[in-house]
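Running this now, will post back.
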Amino acid sequence: MNDFTLFLGKFLRHGTKIASIAPSSPALSRLSVSGIDWDTVEGLVELGAGTGPITQAIAERARPDCLVIAIERDPDFCARLRRRFANQPHIRIVEGDVRDLEAILNHHGMNRVRHVISGLPVPSFPRDLRRDLFAAVGRILEPDGTYHQITELPWVYRGLYRRYFNEVRFVFEPRNLPPAGAYFCRGLKTQPGE
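Update: finished.
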């Protein structure tokens, strides 16, 4: 089964628990990891790795000594990711929940990261899960770190991310199907309002 078929099947069965009907395009994946200084970054986290297109974009850029933690909840996606990145020991595939982010990082010898890249369907999360996600991100993200979030509804969620971050920038990527983009956020607020 190819990535598209697997992704579409998951979307049809689970709806908004899966972020999209299809994996991110190479163009969207490259966009999602832009702005990272690959010469200096020592570790980063990917949330909702799916079948791995963003993980692949990271793998193409990250140095072998940069620890990459790719977290995915779905066991089928995790199995595919483990096969795909088996020969890259600096990329760790973790089947887990984002609410356990701190414990997952500690298990891999990390406390904080400079970048978090997310493919999660954050806008469809219940409010308490969204709050828990950003609280967990706040505990592991360096003060000057960035949070990158892909989306398939360009511009619609700027207000949502402004509730959580002081700086929010959106970049459109028309070559994805459907058209999509990425939010680049910095300065997580200590007491965000919903």
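The CA atoms of residues 37 and 170 lie 19 Å apart. More later if anyone needs it.
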